Records
---
Amino acid sequence: MKTILQIEDNLANKLLIERVLEPHPYRLLHAADGETGVALALDEKPDLILIDMGLPDIDGQTVVTLLKQIPDLENVPIVAVTAWPADTAEKMARQYGCDGCITKPIDIRLFPAQIAAFLEND
Amino acid sequence: MKLVPAGEFSFEQLVDAYNQTRVDYVVPMPMNVARLQEYSRVYDVDLSRSVVVMNGDVMLGLGMLGVRNGRTWITRLGVLPNGRRQGVGQAIMEELLGQSAGLHAQTIWLEVIKGNTPAHKLFCKNGFRETRELIIARRAPNLKAELPDDLRVKSVTPLDHEDALMLLSHRRERPNWLNEMESFHHVKNLSALVVELLDGGRGWVTYHAGLLQLTRVCVEVTVGDPAEVTAAILHVLHQRHKRQDTITENLLDDETWEGFKTAGYFEAFRRIEMNRPAPRN
């Protein structure tokens, strides 16, 4: 079973993603801030990381920067899930070496397929 | 609707309310307690003159007031989703303007994110006028960063915190509230590099180097082409700090910004700086 780590401070967004992915065979982990997210990523070595760029303790961009510098995690795809305007979000994701970008609000019909695609490319 | 000084609430309560005001904001920027405490300290936010709007036990909105010699700064103003369309924003503005008048502030400053039309309208309605646009820029780290082949550096002189403050005190441009000397006096461990190029170009950069981030990057060119020398100085900086992510706030959209872009920075978003002079008696 593939493991997905969601780093997201907003409870409503966290619950929405959990609900949308519930019918699918994934193990979901959650961190509400950047520091917990990095710790969970190191401990659990997930197959995919979904990260909100606006986190309360450390900017999501900085967390991505850190995760990308950890050898054990260098092959784990990181996808920015963000409320930034689409063009800024894509630019941000590209500049920081994210493997993709999904803008909020997520499209609940498309989201499972988007996630599956990122996991397949892993 | 009741207005209560923000100082009567804990930082936890203020952070919780503030984050709720930003859930659907144009630029996501939640805070935690440590961040809000740091923000309040560095930018001289006076919580006793800041305000929370309540309806019974329910918070509807909040706004904070920075206080410095002869001027005030309205910041972190927001209305929670359950307080919208009830005049909460206007009530906060009136309170913060009243506090500023009580302090005999000659000028009241604020910034609004470009594209936040409702907030911009509220500020215009309350007598604020645009002064300039400010750029919030980021630069992702590049572990393979090398100095460009055509960059000829004559000397790089690292300076400590006190020297960095000295450089900052001699800036030519009027700094924004975030980058005023009062802010930098509240920051620990600033660093600086004075860079001299073989072609005679010269300038300096001040910054704060954290474990994960470079912040508070300020560049001033003293001799040479502003864009080229800025780019050169920043290349030198980032060659020394390859692993850190960089964010710098409230840059002017001038020739220097071209140098930032050449060195790998990109615009995250813009703020519009606004002010309102005190009414004449």
Note: Chain B is about 30% helix and 35% strand.
---
Amino acid sequence: MTAKVTQTAFVSRFGAAIFIIGKILRFAFFLMFLLILGSKTHRVADYSIFQIIFVFATFNIVDTTSQFFLREVYRFRYYVVSGEFDYFLTKPLSPLIRSLFGGSDILDLPILLLSVVFIVYSASQIGNISSPFVFLYIALLINALAIALAMHILVLGIGVMTTEIDHTIMIYRDITQMGRLPVDIYREPLSWILTFIIPVGIMITIPAKSFFGILSPQLVVLSLFISAIFLIASIRFWHFALKNYTSVSS
Amino acid sequence: MKKYILIIKNVWSEMTTYRLNFALWRLRVNLQLLTMYFLWLAIIPTSGQFGSYNQSLMLTYILGGALLSTVIISSRSYGVGDHITQGDLSNYLIRPINYFAFWFAQDLGDKAMNISFAIFELTALFLILKPPFFIQTDPTFLILAAICAFVAVFLYFFLNFLIGLVGFWSPEVWAPRFIFIILITFFAGGLFPLDILPAPLYEIFKYLPFTYLIYFPLKVYLGQLYLQQILQGIATAAIWVLILYLIVKFVWNRGLKLYTAYGR
């Protein structure tokens, strides 16, 4: 299925090339913005410019990885509106798995690689890297992807009930954009809301802070707990939405 | 003229029909605004300075930019490309209607709806956030800023229309638009004032049309430019409007010769 979607993405080489260039430009322009900030302020809140770049690259890893694997969610509205979703329900594959992982977006791969390069580069500039912190960072990144997965399941559930997908998923993306910078630079209560209610901070800032070695063990535990709650709640909501699915489009 | 007023009314009817869609769109716009607002609030402390901006001027720039984006950037003419690639253009070519005026009327309807909501939302944000807003009291700057915004509406219309005309040559109309949106996001000055960029880069930007969409009208509003600089800027923007109009006309005529109503 993934191979088929990849082939489709490259049917129009012109389109694929333009999209890849666009994504790289977006990455580069925001990076340029951060560098300008760094050149004028040297520090943003308590973070050095390389720490800020590290957070930005971490945001891109989480955002792009979830888009890479979960791109099918963006097409889900069509399946519900056209009635094609009914076929998902009749097949011997979980409709949730089909709706989540039915297609990847290979065009996100260059940004993924670019993000890794910037993580390595900014980490080398920050210095003081220790193995336990690197492992903790990777573990919390996986935790962040679990939250991203929960958010996508929630969007699918809303889609089943209301057919509204396009804006819901983009609202999720808009909110996560706030995580391009460490969420604790924002004022309270926004910072708290972005950490515990809409867990952008847990997805991006907390893994980065674990890498910097400035994260308390309590927050690590709390992050894992919150992601577990989100994942369980989203799966339950999905089942609730399925029970209320009326199949009116088919 | 009546038919174009009817088109504007139709846009309103369409937007009020899909209310949830529009409400979620407005929510997204406000989230993006709040992201930039809180970011700059964090970067510039109350008594701090960033380039030629103190906190009050920067927050005024960001909130004013949100309102101006609604006036200038919100549009419907992104649909030109789809009309061409899906063959719907034929329906309009045979009607007694000017295709450019049709889209301009659609844009006006869209802008009017968005402006009415933006005024309400920004008022609410002002009451909640109580930002240190800079209010320009000199009528000269206010009038000149309004003129700049007026020119910017045409500038954006022709830029947007031109991107849509790619449809005559390629079915991939969304890929070039993706790049266009990214360029507009960063180079029109909606996220940050362009004069915080390094000086050589900013000098180049002065000659690009994007600069005159959001950054320049706001800079005039803030009263940070001399009269001569403002007049030069308005002249540059007006020249860009003329150049883009001529390019659009040329590309449109060339495209029509290739148009095969494919899809119909």
Note: Chain B has a mean pLDDT of 89.
